[in-house]
Amino acid sequence: MAVNLQKGQKISLKKSDGSKLNNIMVGLGWDAAEQKSGGFLSSIFGSKNDIDCDASVFLCKDGKLQSADDVVYFGNLQHSSGAVKHMGDNLTGEGEGDDEQIFVNLDKIPAAYDKLVFVVNIYKAVERKQHFGMIKNAFIRIVDNDTHTELCRYNLSDNYDDMLAMVAGEVYKKNGEWKFNAIGNGTKDTGLGELSKRFQ
How much is the pTM? Predict the structure, then answer.
């Protein structure tokens, strides 16, 4: 059974039998909430604007993001080590399940890296007057990709009104063991560049 995490909760990343994990899939999902607007038709049908959320990963050395090459996102889908691969951009958040998926081979991560930070930001949030308060059912989950078993899930249920980006969680190494930390902190960073400065 997958563990439902609370904010700030940490969990060791191991297989259900306690053995070491090799391959994980980090899934991030969200839905656009119904937006009430005053138009006649919207009173009948409701109004829902597509919100383009982008999931990204910062690969950190000594806990810091030290190079632009260590950002895996829709414009750089694979890390040079081959250890982290982004499956591409979902423009709307439509549909059930994961909206974006990032695959991580824990064995392939070079020893210099000790933390992977998973973030989500809204594309052109300021121009489009969108924020995370317009999103519902957001989550981050970790799956053992060898067995396709969900290990843990964190539902991002805080009030994120006026927040333009989110630090969802991190996979980090402690005493040679990989762990996951459920973070769920909203920020007002307007784009990935601004968000990345928090970790430099």
Answer: 0.88
